[in-house]
Amino acid sequence: MNVFIACSSKDNIDEKFYQYAKEVSNLLIETKDEVFVGGKIGIMGFIANYVRKNNIEPNIVITKKYQSEIAKEDKKVFIAESVNDRINYFLNKTELFIVFPGSLGTLNELFMALESKRTDGSNLDIILLNIDGFYDDVIKVFENHANGKFFDENIHDFMYVARSINELKSYYKEVREKR
User: Fold this and answer.
1) What pTM was estimated for this model as a whole?
2) By the 8 A CB rule, do 51 and 33 touch?
3) Mean pLDDT per 10-residue segment, the chain (179 residues)
4) Phi, psi of 154 (to 5 degrees)
5) In what order do the strands lie in the sheet with 34-37?
6) Phi and psi, residue 104, nearest 5°
């Protein structure tokens, strides 16, 4: 299965997020799934390096602006013209999005994946890692929109929300079994 990890490109975040990334990386290694991430910094770089050290060559997908974040070890690289091209690449090449805590880019990836499922009927599975309630406010925005009748769908029909690494692992295995 092809798995995209949407995650932070910042290095100076809480160490616990690196531990979560290690646990998810171990799952990817165990299942030998194809890994798609961004450049060499932050959680993206951590995951790329971790799986590489365990004999999985990650797919690095990056925009031209950030091509300096390609590591010399990176062998599978796709340089997109724009952010939208980059996300469309992920949407076309992967079956599962795992969304870690992150910033604007991560939110953009999440929203584009959700809209692709809603509008295009994409077969993509999405797991939102809402560990420590990181995405509670985002989920509340979705609920407010549904309550205001701005959309009819239940956001939970479009993605799994994992509140722990164990829940993420459970959803991950469920997705793999149905594929």
Assistant:
1) 0.94
2) no
3) 95 94 96 93 95 96 90 92 94 96 95 92 94 95 85 82 97 93
4) -90, 125
5) 76-80, 59-63, 34-37, 2-6, 96-99, 125-129, 160-162
6) -60, -45
Nearest CA among 170, 153, 151 for reference residue 24 = 170
Distance CA 67, CA 93 (A): 20
**How high is the pLDDT of residue 76?**
95
Structure tokens at 92: 């076309």
Residue 135 CB: number of other CB atoms within 10 A? 24
Alpha carbons 44 and 60: distance in angstroms, whole number:
9
Max CA pair span of the chain: 49
What are the backbone angles phi and psi of residue 10, rounded to the nearest 5°? -105, 140
Residue 114 CA to residue 144 CA, distance in Å, equals 16
Report the percentage of the chain scoring pLDDT > 70.
100
Q: How far apart are CA 113 and CA 96, in angstroms?
A: 10
Q: For residue 7, which amino acid is it?
A: C
